[in-house]
Specification:
mainly alpha; transmembrane (chains A, B); transmembrane helix (chains A, B); four-stranded antiparallel sheet; homodimer
Chain lengths: 762, 762
Amino acid sequence: MTTLSDLAVSAAINTTSALAFLLVFALLRLQPINDRVYFPKWYLKCKRQEGTKRNGARSVSNIINLDWKGYLHLLDWTKEALKMPEPELIEHAGLDSAIYLRIYLLGLRLFVPMFLLSAIVLFPINATDDKLQDSHRFLFSNIDKLSISNVKDGSKRLWAHICMSYIFTGWICVVLFREYEKVMLMRLGFNDAQRRRPDHFTVLVKNIPIDPDESLGLHVEHFFRVNHPDNYVLHQVVRNGNKLAKLVQKKKKLQNWMDYYNIKLLKNPAFRPTTKTSYLGLWGEQVDAIDYYTKELEDLTTQIKTERKKVLDDPKALLPVAFVSFKGRWGAAVAAQTQQTKNPTVWLTEWAPEPRDVYWRNLSIPVVELTIRKLVMAVAFFFLLFFFMIPITFVQSLANLKGLSEKISFLKPIQDMKFVSSFLQGFLPGLALKIFLLLLPTLLMFMSKIEGYTSFSSLERRSAGKYFIFLVVTVFFGSIFTGTASQQLSNFVNESPSEIPSTIGNSVGQKALFFVTYIMVDGWASIAAEILRLQPLILFHLKNTFLVKTERDRKKAMHPGSICLDRNIPKIELYFLLGIMYAELSPILLPFIIVYFGFSYLVYRYQVINVYDQRYESAGAFWPHLHTRIIICLLIQQISMIGLLATKSADKSTPMLIVLPILTHTFHLYCKNRFEPAFSKYPLAEAMAKDTLERAVEPHLNIKSYLQDTYMHPVFKEAEDTDSDSEEFDQDPPLVPLKHSLQDGTPVPSASSATQMIIRYQ
Amino acid sequence: MTTLSDLAVSAAINTTSALAFLLVFALLRLQPINDRVYFPKWYLKCKRQEGTKRNGARSVSNIINLDWKGYLHLLDWTKEALKMPEPELIEHAGLDSAIYLRIYLLGLRLFVPMFLLSAIVLFPINATDDKLQDSHRFLFSNIDKLSISNVKDGSKRLWAHICMSYIFTGWICVVLFREYEKVMLMRLGFNDAQRRRPDHFTVLVKNIPIDPDESLGLHVEHFFRVNHPDNYVLHQVVRNGNKLAKLVQKKKKLQNWMDYYNIKLLKNPAFRPTTKTSYLGLWGEQVDAIDYYTKELEDLTTQIKTERKKVLDDPKALLPVAFVSFKGRWGAAVAAQTQQTKNPTVWLTEWAPEPRDVYWRNLSIPVVELTIRKLVMAVAFFFLLFFFMIPITFVQSLANLKGLSEKISFLKPIQDMKFVSSFLQGFLPGLALKIFLLLLPTLLMFMSKIEGYTSFSSLERRSAGKYFIFLVVTVFFGSIFTGTASQQLSNFVNESPSEIPSTIGNSVGQKALFFVTYIMVDGWASIAAEILRLQPLILFHLKNTFLVKTERDRKKAMHPGSICLDRNIPKIELYFLLGIMYAELSPILLPFIIVYFGFSYLVYRYQVINVYDQRYESAGAFWPHLHTRIIICLLIQQISMIGLLATKSADKSTPMLIVLPILTHTFHLYCKNRFEPAFSKYPLAEAMAKDTLERAVEPHLNIKSYLQDTYMHPVFKEAEDTDSDSEEFDQDPPLVPLKHSLQDGTPVPSASSATQMIIRYQ
């Protein structure tokens, strides 16, 4: 049993490391040399450039900050993070980011009042009972006295907990409802206020049947000219650019090596660098590096040209997938929401994702394969889920060092070393879990890609869904139930349905302290690590030293990253689960969660403003996902609560709680019905209104030329780019790698509010 | 334990009664006096009239059949039933009826090959083992030796059953797939080939928001003129005619009494009939009947006139519901499949049901109420489901007379009377269940009406869904598990999930003989009763004697009835469950089910051709419902099989079966995706093709005048009708109630194929 002092050590370690990260961050961000690591967003928006502050003079002050005044305001970044108002934030970083930040606010809005109420009502009720003093069956720490475990079986005090269940459920529903409504209105407002976007006019058509008599392009055109005669404008059949994309990718790598050796040569012209021909330059024949890469690059450039020409000309490279555009938003809305032919597996239409959001690779998957792929992935996920639990449970057992050392004698000395023991107890279990979970999202994203979703946003939502199941099963249930994974699974199957809630209800109370540790390691420390950006910091400086030749290269080296929705959202959902679960059982957990939400809000707001560059804009399409998951958390809590009360032999009061899940489910259905269509459909009235307005404002708009080539596989553009790049390079290689080269400040658009912001932020 | 001789008695009773019903039917249908009871369909189509066969001469031969030749061909009706080819049947009775008949054929197609295979493979395998001879734990009858119960635990013979599981599942899926495809094509072909129907152009719009500035009608018109500018034609706002409908209904009743007394007076002019003023004429003041009813009718006519005027003029009688029609099918398809405004709870559009199919009463339910109504009904259904089981279980316990008489001594003599005992054992349990279940569909339909569905077809599907759950839980599980309803429920909750399949698998084999009895009572006997039409026969003759004055009255008295999909389909689904379940466990059940399907097919085909008059045409909209339920039956069988094999300690082979439910579920998803849209959506390409064709064929069609007033509450027309009726009656009462009055045969449309049919059928 984890004791209070273990907890104190763990808290001390985690708080210290979090504070240390923050201090390092506060110092590093002031150094101009790191400017592109901590403010890449502004560089991408062309609103910040090196040295502008120093009036263009090159000096050591461009590398490190010598101005002592700056160090007096180490914590200014928190102020900066909070300063920008929300509408400006939406304009600056997009709606997805703004809505993402609202999740943290939602957490605060939920849990702060819940904690206050718990502290006033439940603490006195729990603390003044004395079950834990009477019984010697359980080991317990002082914190447990504040939890429901201290209330005697069958006590009338449990009525207070039942009332709180109703109050909490009501409160959560009210807050969730308001937030859903607000997010929906933000989404609609955003779509309304936005500039024209090609995806408003475009529909993605999949599984176009082959017509033996005409080409694919003509077939698409005829079909839509006939069936949407007043609306059809143009179409772009998708070409299979996967092979070309691979070649371009390979060329980029070679180009990097080429640059590296060129720079090496320039620095030391006397010594021509050599390389080996085989894998990673480690084996094979020794050759002159620059000659070798020049040759390889030339070969590849020819290959790319051939492949590009082939893909663009060959009708076999055409996929039965097309982006079809319409004259107005109304026409596109109609085409996206209706069935086209009597065979519902061909001419499948759906809203086209934003051009940036398209995951081109999956467009080449035949529709018939999709069902099989999904089935296979579902089975794979099931096995992954349950075999993954074995190492977790092993690490879990470490946390109970006392029990372990009783069995294994050589652990005894470790346990006697007070500090080491506390360290192991408090820090290790959470950390090991963390490392496991770090590798997971990539795997899940890979699985989702195999499932064949065609946009990044849907891929991320799908991954997030899997990850949430993972977190709930492995972290939450995996911590509550002990035993190996297969034991747990067979327990679940062999126990009666009425026993499972009791088991959860019973053990969940005893695990509060473990979850406090988890929150500190996974929550606090990792958020602090997030703001430090250690990996991008190192990568940037490495690239800047070895690869960067031009301003554009430096821009490429920045790696601003983006909010990984597929990693972050499930984690937040887990904290919602913990918060909702422990609000009644052991409210002492809530302050830790509140600190997590508050701290995360601050850090992510700062990062959104200064760092992240979102790959796409889905206008908050992830909210229904989040809302549903929070409702699931609430249901898990209610069922556990029923189970717990049943074991506390509160027979009279337990049936009172059965109404709660039913009401919650009804609330969920209502919300789904009320709000979800706004996230998946484009209402005709809105579409018509925007079309009419546009026609009045811009009567001579040529929609055809606006839409031409908007949905083109980016690799075709890139292939062109790299062509011109390499030619440029061949003709005129830069003489010196420009580190922090100074350029005339390109004039910043003066009238925009963003300019004022830059001034404020510098 | 039911023995073989019990079974024989039961089979004898049921077969005899079924044959008796058939004989009576064969005799009655030959009597001209019953012509309107057994051939109402032809009268409604104006293709048959009394006395046409006898060349218009009134004689006793118009009442009973004196032609002895007719009696030689008693069984001709079976030939008649099978003679009409399917396309003609569709034209004659509609697609719903034709597809309904295919369900029975589907049963035959499934179970005949399954029985043959079982008989060849499983009978020898089961019969040559000897578990039941070894063990004395179970009482068993000879039939059980052919079932899987006779195979020893852990025997290698069980591999045969596992193989059969795969073969059967594969066969069922193949047949279901082909049938679904066929039905879908029939539906699409039917819609294609059909004449213009108003519901193809019309969309039902619900929850229209109130606009304070304009009337509801104008608001609807403006909304659709703006958002569907090229397609909108007209709209019909629905008026609340519920009160008027009640008044009209009441008037019809009074009119019936009035007619009754008028006829009484005419027969015996010396004696003026009297009645009492209160409930049903049983209490209250004695008054002259004709004066009293004349007065009452006059009052009611005035009331109806006032109410009708009020409803038609008062804007408050307008409901926020409208039928909106479009210029073409394309426009209607677009409006029906898209979301109209950003608030998804207003301007809800859906396909309008056929005018005959609209359930007007529910159109007045506010949309916000619907969620609550559904929730309440779900809870009510849950309670109904589990408290309903108490009487069933009581009756079940009767079947085990032996066990009962051991406890209750005075039952001993009954058990000793061999025949009575067998009768009770074999006949009573099924009969009692049957009486219970007879009352149920009406209740379930009532519950579905409360849920607020707005078309008869959806009401029937909804009721059928509930009834299916009922049948599965009460008849199937209720027979398998013994004990009271609450015991069973608590068993289910307290048993572990892995035990439930074993329990089912274990007991299901022992219940085979009970289900044979059930099939004979519920299936065979009730189908024979169906063709006899005893209730309509009596009612028709009563009405014909006491109420009928004119030819139109006689038409009204016919009551052809229709196939009650909400009663029949769940029953058929239960037989599918039994068939699929016992095909492996105890294949001896299959012949009984095959006889049921064959006999039903014959009887219903006869009835569809000669009797039933469908209230509406949904073009087979119930098929997805049926398909899903059969898949559910298959899943229940697979899970029971896993449980059974687990208890037979076939540990190695059982896991082989776990793949089956997963495959079945995948098959279901595929079918859903592939076929279901054809039952809920109108594809745009089809709509456009039909529109284009129509425009070419009828360029001057005035669609507006075609659609005008198609969606009008029938009560407004009826109110008019009854007005004119009563006036007509007041002015010119017929002097004599015309029984079998002869009229000049109205000329039958000569060119149609139907005429030839009539000749053939007379």
